[in-house]
């Protein structure tokens, strides 16, 4: 019976059809916030730390790498994260003091850093009160 349950939850591609608890990478931390991009995820813990996993091909994980990660990876900077958002291939967070950071695919100016960048990370502005990432904006 147990094998039947497992086969209905996870298909041959590794896709999960039912909610499964996240058991690796973020032990002993309470998750306060979740943001889902096209194929990457970000979480913020109760102690305002940020983790990410999924496709990193455009730097959207914020780890300094363009590699994929199949388990949550700690994002070392910025810290004191209040809010987080994810778009198609980009991410954003709001930190204590009102600074907003953006990273990932910069095409079309979606990072708010001008159109000269292709992929990257940087400080967007001060005095921001909330965040939102659209699919491509």
Describe the fold and architecture.
The chain has 1 helix and 8 strands; from the N terminus they run αββββββββ. The strands form 2 sheets. The protein has a 4-stranded antiparallel β-sheet with strand order 1-2-3-4, with no helix packed on it. The protein is mainly beta. The chain has one domain (25-125): Methylamine Dehydrogenase, Chain H.
Structural features:
single chain; 137 residues; mainly beta; Methylamine Dehydrogenase, Chain H; four-stranded antiparallel β-sheet; 8 strands; 6% helix; receptor; RCC1/BLIP-II; Reg_chr_condens
Could you describe the largest sheet, including whether it forms a barrel?
4 strands, antiparallel
Strand order of the largest sheet: 1-2-3-4
- The percentage of residues in β strands lies in 35-45%
CATH class type: Mainly Beta
CATH architecture: 7 Propeller
How far do the termini sit from each other?
46 Å
Reported by name, the CATH topology is Methylamine Dehydrogenase, Chain H
Q: Could you state the order of secondary-structure elements as H and E?
A: HEEEEEEEE
Rg, please? 16 Å
What is the tally of beta strands?
A: 8
């Amino acid at each position: 019976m147990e094998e039947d349950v497992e086969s209905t939850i996870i298909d041959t591609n590794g896709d999960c059809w039912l909610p499964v608890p996240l058991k690796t990478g973020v032990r002993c931390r309470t998750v306060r916030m979740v943001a889902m991009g096209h194929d990457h995820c970000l979480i913020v813990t109760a102690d305002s730390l940020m983790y990410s996993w999924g496709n990193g091909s455009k730097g959207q994980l914020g780890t300094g790498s363009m590699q994929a990660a199949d388990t949550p990876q700690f994002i070392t900077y910025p810290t004191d994260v209040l809010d987080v958002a994810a778009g198609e291939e980009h991410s954003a967070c709001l930190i204590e003091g009102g600074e907003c950071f953006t990273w990932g695919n910069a095409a079309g100016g979606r990072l708010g850093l001008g159109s000269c960048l292709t992929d990257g990370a940087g400080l967007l502005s001060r005095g921001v009160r909330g965040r939102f990432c659209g699919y491509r904006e």
